[in-house]
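ok trying again, last paste got cut off:
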Amino acid sequence: MLEAAKSGSFDRLFYRYNSLYLLRRHFHSIGISGELQPPAAAGRGIFYLMNHSSWWDGLLAYHAAGKLPGSRHYFMMEEEQLRKYAFFRRLGAYSINPGSPGDSRASLRYTAGLLQAGERVWMYPEGEILPLEHRPLSLKEGAALVLRLSPQAAVVPVTLYHGLFRHTKPEATLLAGDPLIFPWAGMERADIARRLEAVLSEQLEAHRSRIVNNRGYMPAEFKPLLRKGRSTHEWYDLLRRGGRSQS
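nice, full thing came through this time. structure:
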């Protein structure tokens, strides 16, 4: 497996590039609701489990994590992609190779070691990118194995819901759920996987409903993670008004 090789200076440089160019160029807005560092998880490693529905998921999580004070974050990434984009290792990415059981076990043990050291780790337990509306969510047992090896860790379920709603660029929202703190070591892997699957599935449905019930507008509870850009029709409306913004 490929371990993370974090570089503070490179991290700071890439974070600005990601925030000011990549995300701003491709998204109209990004919002978040909930606590990524809840008080109940203080003093524990935090294991973020997130649904996986787009190529952007890792960069959105990285952007959200970078807003948090005083913590380092690590991201599990498929080995083929990490070899292709090796610079992600300097941002905290490390690999998992689903095609090699031995390498996969090494990656899961590495994850558990990070959590035991009190670090923050992001994982996509579905194991692959699937369409946003794909149901039911089906989680692999890798996350359950990690929790049995690092039973002091707190799980924070994070759901991502995104789409083209009222602008020419997509909007994305992240929802952080209540932390899960259980005696993981005394639970069977299958039971842990089912519990995590149920929590993440229920949260994703509730998340989706908030967006749908708000008619595609971002609900007020989602605080901005990125300054909104203007869509094509907004630039057109501005030009029609002679460059004067509406009050």
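cool. The radius of gyration is 19 Å. The mean pLDDT is 93.
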